[in-house]
């Protein structure tokens, strides 16, 4: 298998190096051969090539079986004009690779739950998956422009029916592998696109009779995520709603530094990345938490390669490291032994081999 | 002053009756003369007139100085075609009256804070105001339609520059009356409309040098509302982001049943309503909590009529009722004496006269 590594900016370099070591150890143990190619994206690519997404990077990703991304962005590029901003690289690669399904599993770790802003009785036992449509909606719709001498501005929320169908199918399939409950989030009392969204979900229901379906307005969803996160299993929603709700959900369990994500193409090819950012303030100090990126490699093994056992080995190792009382500086594990990136990586490696 | 009452559906009738009594008592005490006219909206209007927003209702509101609304909606109309749904009445009246500024103050009551899903140390002391643009953006932008035989659908997020300017001005002025901190929320790394939004805020800053301004992306705002609600004073944002964030914020303090709102026109005319819904499950039982609607009349006195002292009398009376240990069934006041709508109204009346 060909894997492209895109370290990106800030702590990206450190966490990618760490995750690659874990991936190598696990694939070696199970006799798979993975080959790695490193390319530039984001601010690093702007500095070297004058663009956040060099063609060379796109080509390499297109020829690969999976991509592992660190993080992009930093204050250095914050004042750049918008086509020279690191996040354009991220948006570009999603669109060019056709990564339409963003999967964000959110599950608390017992050792971290006390760091949640929510009361223990509210958040304990939460285990949800947000399936966000990633290449449509307001993000890429046209026109997106100023008019009338700058007196007016429009953006366009646009969906092809088949784009809605494929993400809804993906979510139903994910629900099947979990607790068989799907919450479709829309704003059908206002948006025409949400009415179509709701119709598609209603149509697809027939193909998944074993999955229970519920519709929820996005404003109500934003409330219920906080008041009763346990009520959710799989949530499926369009791009912008998914952006907001998945970030909202990411802080519920007190494990922001631990959350992985997958962005998938229809054939299973995917880009995997931690949910956290590039943390420029601690970059290069050897203290970054590599666990979310390591957990992203588990998602890669599962979703792009169907290697469930291998994925589970990584997830159990991470779980075990926390249970054994180790943590990085960003994690608030009570009485935890604080270690750096390299030592944390070694501790995980010890447990996967 | 001419006040239009729009009870609407469910518990709307009961809470409007209650709030009207309080408003009458306070205006009498301070020698103001208010005249009341009741009209139909929402499901009640669909049943009686075949439309959620009769012309007669619009005309009455246009001739009034302020409108007090109960709530609209209920299962009875949930399957109606979209032009015959109660919330169309609400959207219609906002647009027709030009109510561009939605103000949602969110402040915890000490007696209720323990009912918050957030930990006490996270939520205690939160006191924020969300200023939501209410007549632009995705809600009314055109085209909003299906295309290509239903194979495609678009909605349009559209703003006139002056629409952004007036809501930003409103928010700066609100911040001035509070802790002088303004957080402008957008998605400037993706949307052209957000870039314009950010430019307008940057321009307006010069007119309010005493107000500190911060820009926050909507996904980050959704996180910070939960992890650190105290960091916010005034938040200003466009219509859809405001819909989501204000509902998210409304559950933070455990006081959902206590939250009022104001929707204002440029000349100060406004529509006032509780944040909660029509609660069809308890309608007509005499147990509805009238306090959010009563607090909405305080916002009316303050924002439409500049009667600050009168507004404060109502707010203090409500505060006092809670301190004296009274509550309605929806409120979780520890050791509280539970009373019905009429008795709660009487308790407030006792304290405003
Ligand atoms: C950086 C930004 C464009 C991006 C998005 O909005 O999709 C980010 O917030 C995310 O969720 O991955
Ligand atoms: C009923 C609905 C159309 C409305 C909105 O989205 O504006 C409601 O959620 C609100 O916030 O008042």
From TrEMBL, chains A, B:
Q: Which UniProt keywords apply?
A: Amino-acid biosynthesis, Branched-chain amino acid biosynthesis, Cytoplasm, Leucine biosynthesis, Magnesium, Manganese, Metal-binding, NAD, Oxidoreductase
Q: In which pathway does it act?
A: Amino-acid biosynthesis; L-leucine biosynthesis; L-leucine from 3-methyl-2-oxobutanoate: step 3/4
Tell me the ranges covered by the Isopropylmalate dehydrogenase-like domain, including all copies. 2-348
Q: Give the site residues for Important for catalysis.
A: 139, 187
Specify whether Hydrolase is a keyword of the entry.
Answer: no
Q: Which reaction does it catalyse?
A: (2R,3S)-3-isopropylmalate + NAD(+) = 4-methyl-2-oxopentanoate + CO2 + NADH
Q: What class of enzyme is it?
A: oxidoreductase
Quote the record's binding site residues for NAD(+): 74-87, 277-289
Q: Which PROSITE patterns match?
A: IDH_IMDH
**Record's subunit section:** Homodimer.
Name of the molecule in the record: 3-isopropylmalate dehydrogenase
Q: Report the source organism.
A: Pontibacillus chungwhensis BH030062
Which lineage?
A: Bacteria, Bacillati, Bacillota, Bacilli, Bacillales
Q: Which gene encodes it?
A: leuB
């Amino acid at each position: 298998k060909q894997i492209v590594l895109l370290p990106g900016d800030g702590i990206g370099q450190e966490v990618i190096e760490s995750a690659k070591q874990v991936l190598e150890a696990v694939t070696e143990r199970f006799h798979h051969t993975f080959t790695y190619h490193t390319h530039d994206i984001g601010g690093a690519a702007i500095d070297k090539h004058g663009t956040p997404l060099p063609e060379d990077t796109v080509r390499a990703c297109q020829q690969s079986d999976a991509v592992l991304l660190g993080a992009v962005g930093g204050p250095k590029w914050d004042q750049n004009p918008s086509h020279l901003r690191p996040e354009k690289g991220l948006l570009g690669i999603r669109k060019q690779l056709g990564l339409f399904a963003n999967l964000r599993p959110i599950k608390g770790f017992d050792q971290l739950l006390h760091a949640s802003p929510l009361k223990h009785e509210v958040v304990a036992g939460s285990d949800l998956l947000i399936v966000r449509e990633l290449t449509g909606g307001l993000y890429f719709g046209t026109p997106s422009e100023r008019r009338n001498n700058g007196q007016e501005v429009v953006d366009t929320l646009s969906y092809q029916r088949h784009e809605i169908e494929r993400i809804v199918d993906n979510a139903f399939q994910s629900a099947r592998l979990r607790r068989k409950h799907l919450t479709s989030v829309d704003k059908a009392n206002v948006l025409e696109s949400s009415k179509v969204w709701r119709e598609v979900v209603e149509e697809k229901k027939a193909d998944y009779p074993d999955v229970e379906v519920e519709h929820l307005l996005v404003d109500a969803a934003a409330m219920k995520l906080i008041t009763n996160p346990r009520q959710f299993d799989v949530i499926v929603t369009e791009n912008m709603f998914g952006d907001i709700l998945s970030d909202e959900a990411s802080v519920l369990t007190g494990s922001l530094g631990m959350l992985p994500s997958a962005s998938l193409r229809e054939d299973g090819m995917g880009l995997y990345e931690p949910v956290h950012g590039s943390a420029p303030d601690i970059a290069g100090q050897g203290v970054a938490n590599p666990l979310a990126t390591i957990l992203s490699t588990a998602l890669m093994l599962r979703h792009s390669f169907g290697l469930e056992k291998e994925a589970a080995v990584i997830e159990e190792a991470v779980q075990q490291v926390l249970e054994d009382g180790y943590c990085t500086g960003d994690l608030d594990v009570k009485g935890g032994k604080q270690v750096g990136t390299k030592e944390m990586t070694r501790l995980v490696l010890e447990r996967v081999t």
